[in-house]
Amino acid sequence: MNYVPGTASLIDDIDKKHLVLLRDGRTLIGYLRSIDQFANLVFHQTVERIHVGKKFGDIPRGIFIVRGENVVLLGEIDVDKPCDTLLQQVSIEEILEEQRLQQQAKQETEKVKMQVLKDRGLSIPKADNLDEY
Amino acid sequence: MDCGLLQAMAEEDEEINVYNEETFGMDLDTHGTTEVPNNGLLQFGELPSPPPPPPPPTPPLDPKPPSRHSSPSPPRQRPQYFPRAPPGQRGRGRGQRGGLGRGQMFEDPAVVRIVQGRPSIKVMHIYSLCEFRQLSSAARLHFDVFLVFKGLDSAIVDCGNAMYQNSFEDDMHSFTVPGSPINLRQPLTPRQHYNQVYTKMDQTCSDALKPIVNVLAKNSVDLLVSVVTNDTGGFMFPMNRPCPSTPQSLTPKMMQLRFGANSPRPSPFYSPSSNSVQHFRKPEGWDPYCNLMTAKEKEWITRLQMIQLQSEHPYLEDYYYQEYYRRIEAKMAEEELGIRGKREPPKLTTPYIMKSDSYTPVVHIEGSLGQVAVSTCYSPRRAISAVNAVQAQCPLEVIVFLRHLASRKCINLPDTDTDTHFHITGTKRHQTTALFIVLLEVEETERMKTTVLSEEEERRLMEKTQKKVEHIYSQLQHHDPLDSGGEFLPFLLVSKGKRLVARLLPFLKHDTALKILRIVTCNLPTLMSRDTEEALPVLYPSLRNVIGGLTFSQLIGLIKDLTFESLTTSESLTLACQNKFGLSLLYALLSQGEKLLSSGVPLEPSIGDFETWTDTIFQVAGQLSQCSLVEPLLLPSNLLTLFCRYLDKRTLHQLKSNME
Fold first, then answer.
1. Is the pLDDT of residue B519 over 50?
2. Which range marks the domain in which residue B572 is found?
3. pTM
4. Closest CA to B158 of B201, B132, B126, B202
5. Which ipTM was obtained for this model?
C-alpha cells in the first residue's frame, strides 16, 4: 500500500529482495529492511555480486547500511523468476582473480592510451578525480 | 564424610555437565575453544555421533558417559517425552550436515550456510537473562520456553546459539557452585539452568511438563511461549510468524543479545546467494526478519516527506504532480462517465498546518539595525543580500536607469542569479523571463485576493500588484535606442513576450492597454510576417477584451492604423486575411463597431469617422469576398448583420460563402 499515492516511495520495497548499484561500482543484493528520509538503506543478508564477463561470484556480506547519496539505482528482484542461465556462477576466489585480471588489463590499456595522448600533447583528466570537484 | 559427600556432589555435577555438553554440545571442540555447534538448539532424540572428547579435568569420568547413556538416567529418558520425527528425517538431518564442521560455524557471523535439519518439530530454548531473574522459583523449575515451529521444509532457524556466547558471561555476577542448592536469587548460566531444570524436571516435574508434551505432540502450529511461565520471556530473535504489524519491543539487554557478534544467525534458507544455485523459494509470507521497520517508522518517514510537499501554491511549486493528478482525474472522469459512483484517484493528503492570515516570514523589528538573533522554521533570518538591499531603497526609475547604463556597459551591476530584477543580459528573451516572474507574482497576488478577508490586506495587495504591473509595463516600454522598432515591439516579436503581454493586459488600465493595442495594429504586418512560431493567437483573447471597451473614435483610429499604415490598404488587408490572428483581429474590430452602432449609445464621433467606417466596410467586404480566408479564431455573430446593411445581395452572398 502506497502511503503517498501518485508518488514514488521506498516504503513499498521494504522486506523485499533488491539489487542496488553503488556509486563505486559495487553491486549488492539483499533484503531491504529499513530506509529513512535520505534513502539510506539497510540491507539484510547482503551479498556482493561481482561480474566479470559471463561469470559472477557472490560474496556474502551480512548486514549493510548504505548511505543514500551513494546509491545509483535500486531495483526489486523477482525471486520467482528463474535465474539467468547465461551467467555462470563461480567461486569467490575465482571471480576475484578474474576481476584482478580485468583490472590489470584495463590499467594497461589506460596506460598505453595516456602515453599515446601524451605524445600528442593532450591530456584527459581521470574520471575519479572529477567527482571531487 | 563431608569430603565424600562433597566429592560425590562434585562428581554428580561433573556428570551432569558432561551430559549437558554431550547433549547440547557445549563441550570443548577439536578447535580447543568452547563452541556451540549448529545444533546447540535442543534437538531431542539426536545424539552427537562422535562421542565428544571428555573435558580434560575429569579423566576418571571417561567411562562415565557411556554408562550414563546406558543407565536409565533421567536426562536420557527425556527425549521420549517428545515425539520423534520420522526416522528418515532424523537421519537426514544428521547426514546432510556433512561437510560443515562444527568449527566452521562461527568463524564469520555473516557467513551464511545452508543447513538442513529436522524438519518436523524444532524446539528451541529461549530466554532472556533478565527475565529469568524475575521468575518465581516455581516457575523456574518448570521454566522452559518452547517455541514450536510449524514443520516446514528443511529449515533451521539457527537462533539459539547467540545466547551461549560471551554476553552471558558479562552478565554473570556470580557463579553458583554446581551442585549447590538452587539459588534462585542469583542469575544462572544456561548450563546451570539446564542442570536444574532437567534434574528437577525428571524428578518432580514430569507432571507439569505433560501439558507441554501434549501440545507438542499435537504439533501445534502456533507460537507456544512458556506454557508454565509468565509471558514476559523476551524474544531473542524475530519469530517465525506471519509478519505482524509490530515486533516486540526490545530492552537494551535484549538488544545486546540481538545484535553485533551476538546476532542470531541468519537463516541460511533465505540467503540470496543460495538462490541461484538452489532456486529456493521462500514460503509465502514467512520471513523471520520482516517488519524490522515498524509501521510507526514508516509512517514517520511518509509524514516527513509529506510535510515537505505541502504548500500554499501547489501549481507553482509542484507543477508536474498537480498536472499529473489533474490528468488522472480527467481520465477517470472520462472512463466513468457512464459508471455510477465515481471513484476518485487516491488523493495525496498532506498534513495540514494551520497558517495565520498574515505570515511574515522574516521577523524584522522596526528601527533595528540588525536581524533577529533567534530564527525558527517559521521565521527564519533573512540571508544578507546586498543587491536586495539596493532594490529596497532605490526607486524603480533609478534601477531602470542603472540597467540601461549597464547594458551600455557604462557601469557594472552585481549580477546575482537569484535576483531577477537585476538580471543583466542583452537578449529580449532573458528580460522577458525576468518580467514573467514578476507577472507570476502579480497573478498569484490576484488569486490570493479571493482568499484574503480584510480590506486592509486587499488594499495592500492591490498596491503591490499595481507597482509590479507598472514595473513590467515600464520595462516593456523602455527600449534600447539601438534597437529598431518602437516601444513594446521588440518584446512582441518574441513569442514569450507575446505571452507576457497577453497576460499583462488584464491588469492594465484601459489607456495603457489601448496603447498596446495600437502598437499591435500599427505593426500588424511586421508581427504577422515575423511570427514564425504562430504565437500571435495568444494575444487575441486579451486584445478582444480591450477592443470590447473601445469607444467609436478610438476604434476608428485603430482601423485607420490597420488599413493605412506601412503597406497599401489592399496588401495589408490581404495579409490580414491570410493570417489567423490578423483576420480575427479585423473581425473583432468590425464587430465592435457594429455593436457600438447598433447599441444606440451616443457615439460622439469625430469628423470623418463615419466615412472612414463605411469606406472600411466596403474595402474589407471586397477583400474578403475575393481572396481566400483562413479559419479565424472567433467569428463574431454580428458581422453578417453588419455587412447586410451596407452591401448588395450579390457581394453579400459571395462574402457569406467565403467566410464559411
1. yes
2. 545-659
3. 0.35
4. B126
5. 0.83
